[in-house]
Specification:
With about 230 residues, the protein is of the alpha/beta class. The protein is built from 7 helices and 10 strands. The strands form 2 sheets. A 6-stranded mixed sheet has the order 6-7-8-3-9-10, with helices on both faces. Strands 2-1-4-5 form a 4-stranded antiparallel sheet, covered by helices on one side. It is globular and about 50 Å long.
Length: about 230
Amino acid sequence: MSDISCRDLCKTFHQGGDTITALDRVCLEIEEGEFVCLSGPSGSGKTTLLNALGGLDTPDSGEIAIGEHRLDGMSRAELADMRLRHIGFVFQSYNLITVLTARENVEFIMQVQGVPARERTRLASGVLAEVGLAGLENRRPAELSGGQQQRVAVARAIATRPALVLADEPTANLDSRSAAQLMDLFVSLNRERGVTFVISTHDARVMRYARRLIGMRDGRIVSDERQQPIAMDI
């Protein structure tokens, strides 16, 4: 895994009798190890672009390459394997399995990958400690705060050491302190592991963390700026 390259991505949706253009000839290059925020109002196309990068949504036309992997030419099975082995996802709704403990949620992806049980448990416990949840491994999602649930989701996303993490509005359901702690964790993972982060957000506080801020409107990239990141106030 290395750089991300998008060329002339187009995507439309049909709603009732209307055609909605979610991506309008989007071209984008992201280098390995970058920390990028996609910003813009609801309906700007940022989530659609994020889903396209992760192979969760297929553009109508255009090219996407992540390193040597061309996503636009992959079958559904190949895309699923790509996501499983190379990309971590963090969603605003957490997407945790409610009947599983924190450790079991983190182990789930590794189980699908075929990692032996003892190794899964070791890795899951280690990554939960890394995100500040040591001692909470056996709690189910309902027994955790929103911030703790999101940390479990992050632990699940990074447990297999992906080169790329895609996060869709990851702070939307968090209070300011939990949001700041989560973003600090993202920055630490980016700096210490070299993980590439692409984050979709409309939260100005989150944008302050980005080293590169890409603005979207009506399915197009309307700005692309590099900035000196500033920590979130809490």
